[in-house]
Amino acid sequence: MMKYIPKEEREKTKQSVKTVFSNNFYMLRLIFTASPSFVLFQAADAVRGQVSIFFEHTVLIGYVLEAAEFGYPFKRVAGIILLLAGLITVGMLFTVYQSDYVAPKERPKVREKIKMKLYEKARDMDLECYDDPEFYNSQVLAISQIDNQIERVIKFVIDTLSGLSAFITTAIYFLYKDKTAILFALGAFVLSMIFEQLYNKQNYLARVESIPASRKRDYVKRIYYLNDYAKEIRLNPNVSDVLIERFENANDEVYAIEKKYALKKWFFGFMRRYVCNSFFADVLFIGYLVYQAAVLKSISFSTVAILYGSFGRLKNSMRVFSETYPFACETSLYVNKIREFLNYKPKIVSNENLVPANNAKEIELDKVSFAYGKTGDMLIKDMDLHIRPGEKIALVGYNGAGKTTLVKLLMRLYDTKGGVIRADGRDIKEYDPKKYRETIGTVFQDFQIFAGTVRENVVLDVADGIDDAGIRKALEQSGLAERIDRFEKGLDTDLTTEFSEEGVNLSGGESQKLAISRVFYKDTGLMILDEPSSALDPIAEYQLNHAMLEATGDKTVIFISHRLSTTRIADRIIMLEKGSIVEQGTHEELLAMNGKYARMWKVQAGAYIAV
To answer: If both were cysteines, with which of 54, 198, 430, 436 could 169 make a disulfide (CB 3.0 to 4.6 Å apart)?
Structure first.
């Protein structure tokens, strides 16, 4: 079913002239900062080109026709022709230099530098931004549209300067030859401007309305070419029918949206292209010129020819107003998304900017509450918890109990809605967020392997010049070193085939060991392991548990596991249910309580009770 765009969304397409130019010049400043020569050379060439065309097609041809009509001396005419030809040739050489050398060399620099700004901003955004569909859509739109908007803004600058140069030179000529003639071009301009803006607005609304459906189509496309889904598609071929049906439905949505706007776009396009242009030029204006020359005899026939030929140039030059401005309006709507994204100010900041010590942390939760969004249900409710330095804590509970949410709060990926979290006696909001997170080593259950070498995936940084001893030790502690040693390139082996055809795809268990080795390598005072052994077999899990105990030493460790056999190594087990602590103690103490943990243990690991 076709999605209806509410009035509020339509209101967002309304922009003042100030906003349009502000957004376009904002992007232009980004481009200019990235490469001044990229902007200046194209701007200069735009002006040069139109001035050259004016002298060649209006002044020179007009002079030659007048010379033929009134009998000017040949020597004088030839001299003027040669002089203008020489100047035009020099201008063409400048154009070749600009278009074939400067622009191709500088364009990649501009794209790289602006994209780096977007990537750095995306890296620094608060995690809660990904929970906001509107902001997330803006982020996707900003990053996906950046190349296009760079070119659009440059085109706006070139078209504006070209149009103004053509308009100024040709208008001066019209005013000199026949002041009234310029009114015909002015009438075509006003109507074209109105219909061009209406056309571009419909075009933008159609694109915005089709974004959700386009994302659905892109999702299906990704499923068919990503390795992550290859086995599932082949083992469950019927799911392909479901995906194709959803792709077709999304495609129908896009088609329906295009159809919805097609009639208006056709009408506005017809009015701007034909009624406002051909009718004025071919009917009204030529009739006026013939009347002036044949009846009133106020202008010569050579002037008629030049004015008629120049009318198209004057009319097209006014596109700087009738088409270029609406074009800038559409660009502004996209640039505004980019601008909002780049101007986003992180909320998770610190007024104190204290740097925490990288020691075994003491953690204290005092009446902590949290919910995603502004109106979501509380997932953590008035929680009190004290973790001693060097203590090994296991968080257990059923899905949705709040375990992963709790560790995200401890890392300050989110801020609490109520209460205080303290690390080493200080509110974690007093610490510099980045410095604070650097003192925490973390593995989440949805970890990612990056396209890079084994070394880079362990260090998670530029690994050139880094001593391999620490990397190897971390791999040995996670149990992956033996597997890496079998690779021909060892630590320099590329993982995934994104950047290298010879790249290696690790198994689920191997990937998890690699993710765990990152924590060992980071060697922080607090380690948080969210399902650290979920993809490992029992033997590998047993070995990893003992490796973790040995490697973590006196560090503070918090780990989450659905396998309760893993939790037995903890100094204390915290059982969560619906965002609250319902039981805590050692494994033996909780079994003796014969409560919820004991029931979970009996169901899941009853075979180990007699051990």
So the answer is: 54
